[in-house]
Description:
This protein is of the alpha+beta class. Helix content is 28%, strand content 25%.
Amino acid sequence: MAGWNADTAAGPMGSGSVTLVEGSSFCISSANGDINPEHPHGVFYEDTRILSRWNLTVDGHPLEPLAAKTKEPYRALFVGRVPRTDGYADSPLIVERLREVGAGILEQVTVRNYSPAPAECVVSLRVEADFADLFEVKEARIQRRWAESREADGDRLIIRAEWQSVRKGVVVSAGGADIAPEALTYRQVIPPHGQWTATLSVLPTVDGGGPLAPFVHATEGEMSPRDLRRQEWVSRIPVLHMGNRSIERTLRRSYDDLGALRIEDPDHPDRIVVAAGAPWFMALFGRDSLLASLMALPVDPSLALGTIQTLAARQGSVVDPMSEEEPGKILHEVRLDVSSGLALGGKSAYYGSVDATPLFVALLGEVSRWGFAPESISALMPHADRALAWIRDYGDRDGDGFVEYKRLNDRGLINQGWKDSWDGINFADGRLAEAPIALCEVQAYVYSAYMARSWIAYDAGDKALAAEYRDRGAQLKRQFNEQFWLPDRGYYAIALDGKKRPVDACASNMGQCLLFGIVDEDKAPLVAERLMSPEMFSGWGVRTLASNMGAYNPASYHNGSVWPHDNAIIAAGLLRYGLAEQAQRISTALFDAAEYSEGRLPELFCGFSREDFDEPVPYPTACSPQAWAATTPIQLVKGLMGYYADVALGGLWMDPVLPESFGDLHMSNAPMAGGRITIDISGSEASVQGLPEGMHFHRGTRPWAADLVEQARMREKG
């Protein structure tokens, strides 16, 4: 995950923690629903913890957790019981907490009395708000102390805080409660076999003034704004049915999570982008949002366009060594409301990513083929050209044809590819590689960017520009296969180090190179053989690092773990080179793994062998839901369907190789060129209904941008 540094991560969030997410807001609590500041818990709004303690007691006792069920990504039901103090085992008092997250939280507390006698109860909620920013909480280094005031105002508790002229606040509304500065209290008598319910809300204030618009509490049978937003999302995405119900459940869970991870560009609410993941990355990330929206194209192509437009609006324009901004560079991450002293690079936007910029151009090339308005694409072309200029002028600092990175200050990320932990790039013997570092997959992204720009230029009739980027791509591919390939090992080096030596670890990065087409045809089967070897393939997926490497650790973040998104890209790349059997094995393994986490793949899991552990071993601080992981099942099925469009060429291509265990596939309401189509796949046979006028269905493989460029070159030769 971008922005994560392995030596500063927070510890476990507490046993059985529950994460809810809606847009850029999220809530982390314990299994009984309590929020405790000694854990990285809280309600977060715009990267600020607006609620650091939310402890419910009945007669002075915390609830004993019984169940916690996430109903939607933004809503959960916690069930607990009140412990007895009279020596009897079973308590007649059961408490339900139905919580919904939005700009704050809305919580309905219900106490049920299963006794034949009335029960006198004192229900109390202890409330604290420390207004710590996300980095302070995540890294357990809360240093600021806000000057706080608390005021009971009717049925509301108002907490205000100030620090260095910054004002924040929160309003807790609790109708019917006794409001005191330190707690909210209800004194109730619950009738025999009866119940009592109260509704509370917590909302941040705006600039120290009044609260945000109050939570709309839906009446019985009605939907909340979160439900309406979800319903609007569901109406626009495909409806999927598969013979294998477990896989169908996983895909539907992916749809739900992807919907919850959507956030708006504050300056352009019509542009929806994908946040990187909960809990710590509910923000726009260059690499993460680009790859997630690429994988989600069949579900909602507009996410990719919105992501590109939003990143284009924040494209680098100056040289700033602290934030690592450079002209044409695409940002690494944006934070909404953090202290500049805590964010990476010291500012709300940080640009320390070597791969977001070429991925930006590569994704634009793919998006241009999915049928968006020509003026939308043409408006983005100057940004693509500025990104390509960054590759030439800043990415390739020494002019050797490869894009390298080296952080510009001692507060930036040491490693600036997707494996961005401090120890993520190493030699076979475990030694760390020293910068400047040229990653193998980054060269593949650059190659794809060159091919995309070349084809767009050909399509626009600019043959000179098309030839320029075609030749750049051809030269890069030749150099890459000469300098990164290790003929005595049968695989590609993960990188070249600062002395241009191949960093010879056997890592998953080379698998991503397949999808972007930079791998020579004769080397692809050897790469596949290595990826599927016992040292690399755990049985649950391809490891980030082979088990016979010096730095291997199955419980590390990037040196032996299994990342679902990495595997989805690898599987798609294997399919590009016709290696379907290996792609099927990876896809089946990941869908098997999802069964052990209620259909939701985590950001990553440990790389222990399936022969030794018959369940995937969780990684302790993995994000969930996370954008890459949520889009992984979509990408796996999309790849196995061979599902690609080119509206300008008037075609939809499919070449299905779904494993028999997946069963038949029926997809309706799938977006395509402004219309909706229905797809049916049984075995290797596919049919499509409802294609827009002028589009035709092709059985086979859609030509890649590199294929189109080569065809255009051959036509020129004549």
